[in-house]
Amino acid sequence: MKGISLLNSLAIILGVVQTTCALGYNDQQQQILAPAANIKDNRPNIIFILVDDQDLLLDSINYMPNLNKHLAQEGTFYRNHFVTTALCCPSRVSLLTGRLAHNTNVTDVNPPYGGYPKFVERGFNENYLPVWLQNAGYNTLYTGKLFNAHTVDNYNSPFANGFNSSDFLLDPYTYSYLNATFQRDSDPPVSYEGQYTTDILKGKALDLLESAISQTDPFFLTIAPVAPHSNVHSNGPIIPGVDLKITAPISAERHKHLFKDVKIPRTPNFNPDEPSGVNWIARLPKQNESNIDYNDHFYRSRLRALQPVDELISEVVDILDENHILDNTYIIYTSDNGYHIGQHRLQAGKECGFEEDIRVPFIVRGPGVLPNYEELAITTHIDIAPTLFDITGLPLRSDFDGTPIPFKKELNSSDPVRHEHVTVEYWGLAIPEGKYNTLGPDNPEIITNNTYKSIRILSSEYDLYYSVWCSNEHQLYDLKTDPYELNNLYVTSDSPGNLNEGREILGVSLAKVIHRLDALLLVLKSCQGQTCIRPWDVLHPEGKVETIVDALDAKYDEFYNVQSKVSFSRCEFGYILDAEGPQTALTYRDGIEWHHWV
């Protein structure tokens, strides 16, 4: 079957009702009404496979033959896909709302700043992707991990909205590979002690898929295995420092023999001789051989934990094919965040702004999607909800901070000025995983000053990362010449002794580029809606600047020199506005005095 056109899709939508709510800056909620029962609904089905903590840059997808055979070779691999927060719960909320974490204010994995209770408190249980698609006539189903702090005690207070059927993994057993607890629809939780969690999930996912196929409505099925997340032992809430042990993931018995000689890729940033980064990362000791051997074991364990996921992909595709709906089903594969292990001397984990943590696999197969194609344009997790609206024929919401990814065309050639930036933001803790202490025996194992704001700028001409930490330390990497982010180029105009004095990027001084990047980050760290998609329009509302190259025109030098600079007044564990420094940028208009954006 073929997917119907956008025009026909829109024809079956009866209307949009806007109701007042207290969720966001627009104070509006759009509800999509279901199509009339007598209209045959041929909109595409969607299967969304969301794994947990999978790396892209450490080659794990190369150990998944079914992923490559059924999805990558039959679809499009988005090489430059980024998350906006390198932590599972904030990233998942952003993915399911199309909004950056500073707009959801779900910034952690546990209350008071995050987790399922914060998601509910912020009103998103009535206002996120499954609710929108369900109201639009989709049969919505979900199995696996939803959010952190979604527990055996609070799963029904309230139940997660938006699903015709669901079967959730629940804390404190979410990350226990041999002691999972699932909760189906409105039933009480059921323990599966002694059984392998991903195999249980596969059975539930395939049952939900068969059920969805038997219905007449198009379906949206999310399959969210915990693999390859670390195994977590906890007797209560999964809170750092509270009876918590994080170890390598456990593999299924049939996979324990695999990859016995595989090691972490020995890239230049793997356990480097000299420290890199700033803040606590710059103080990390070089790892010894015992530590490296353990991390190689950890890496192999992650690859083994992904094998049942790879098997699941093959079975999902087979069922779709057998039922003759494969050609009318989008299959999307991604992870909630990336992962590092050994790079920059870091122990296993995420939560940083380095490439390993913010780049994730993003592979799409479906109607009209280019097969065996690699897309290089920037895409992000906050683009996913708008994209699903686009392919299902729903009008875009005004509170989306992302923009649709047009699956059916090559972005590089057809849209050369599609946004070149990624907003990256993080608040709170960094938690090293495994048995080795991060900073040595006299230092705490949990890092408490890991708050930062960053921006990635990427095009065929340049490839930059700029970051400001809550300690007010800065990072600037030119990934064209330094792809492993080992040489921090940050300089200021008043640092004459700096080794990078006189160095240029894009034909101008580093200081000049830094002023532009900082102003762009100032806009993006508090942007809303369209200003997140087109931030240069805030700085240059006359529309004469669309890229950083445009902004480097010498006539703008004084304008950027006098901008407020991104800074923090202190480090906080959550999004607390009076700790966040300046919030508004000056705008430039020819012949008119500069003023603050309103």
UniProtKB/TrEMBL annotation:
Keywords: Glycoprotein, Hydrolase, Signal. GO terms for biological process: phenol-containing compound metabolic process. It is an enzyme of class 3 (hydrolase). It catalyses: an aryl sulfate + H2O = a phenol + sulfate + H(+). It comes from the Eukaryota. The conversion to 3-oxoalanine (also known as C-formylglycine, FGly), of a serine or cysteine residue in prokaryotes and of a cysteine residue in eukaryotes, is critical for catalytic activity. Pfam families: Sulfatase. GO terms for molecular function: arylsulfatase activity; glycosaminoglycan binding; N-acetylglucosamine-6-sulfatase activity. Residues 44-393 form the Sulfatase N-terminal domain. InterPro entries: Alkaline_phosphatase_core_sf (IPR017850), Arylsulfatase (IPR012083), Sulfatase_CS (IPR024607), Sulfatase_N (IPR000917). Residues 1-22 form the signal peptide. Its EC number is 3.1.6.1. The modification 3-oxoalanine (Cys) is found at residue 88. Belongs to the sulfatase family. This is Arylsulfatase. It comes from Penicillium cosmopolitanum.
